[in-house]
Amino acid sequence: MALVAAAAVSALLLAGCGSDEPAASGSAAPSAVSAGPQVLLDAQELTVLDQPLKYLKKKPAQVTSSILTLDPGQETGWHKHPSPIYVYILEGAISVEYDAGVVKEYQSGTAFLEAVGTWHNGTNKGDVPVRILVVNMGAKGVENSVKRP
């Protein structure tokens, strides 16, 4: 019964989110619901440096998300991540240099799994701020990001 109620509430919420236009008074037909979600990253098993995706297992898992904004010319500073990180470029573009001189460019709308355990530095070389959604799939007591000494 609870499952049926949850499905009904979800359907009502989705029906109410179909359009940014105000509803015309007395309109008979509800707005259409989209065909499904826009997939940003599907069944990815490798990081940007072709490392197999592996989760930390010895401590309780925890997920942290944030939005990082870099102004034109700003850098992240050299750092690395001990656990997997999902990244989505919301706006702008970023250039990331990895150890050994590998450089990758990521544009708005790009989703990827960041390298794990590899030093890297991101730079906004564009004329507009870059906004990045970062989702850390870490573990309790483990830093999400480690700065290079």
Helix run count? 1
Overall pLDDT metric: 84
Q: What portion of residues is helical?
A: 10-25%
> Terminal Cα separation, in Å?
57 Å
CATH class of one domain: Mainly Beta
Overall shape: it is: globular
Major sheet details? 4 strands, antiparallel
User: In CATH, what is the homologous superfamily of one domain?
Assistant: Jelly Rolls
Q: Strand order, biggest sheet? A: 1-8-3-6
Structural class of the helix and strand makeup?
Answer: mainly beta
Tell me the strand percentage band: 25-35%
Instruction: Give the ordered list of helices and strands.
Output: HEEEEEEEEE
For the secondary structure, the number of strands is 9
Q: Please give the CATH architecture of one domain.
A: Sandwich
Radius of gyration: 20 Å
Low-confidence stretches: 1-29
List the helices and strands and how they pair.
Blueprint: H1 2-16, E1 61-70, E2 79-80, E3 85-91, E4 93-98, E5 103-107, E6 111-113, E7 120-123, E8 130-139, E9 146-147
Q: Quick recap of the structure?
A:
With 149 residues, the protein is mainly β. It is built from one helix and nine strands; from the N terminus they run αβββββββββ.
Structure notes:
With 149 residues, the chain is mainly beta. The protein has a domain at 61-147: Jelly Rolls. It is 10% helix and 33% strand. The protein contains one helix and nine strands; from the N terminus they run αβββββββββ. The strands form three sheets. A four-stranded antiparallel sheet has the order 1-8-3-6, with no helix packed on it. A three-stranded antiparallel sheet has the order 5-4-7, with no helix packed on it. Strands 2-9 form a two-stranded antiparallel ribbon. A hairpin with a 4-residue loop joins strand 4 (93-98) and strand 5. The longest helix has 15 residues, at 2-16.
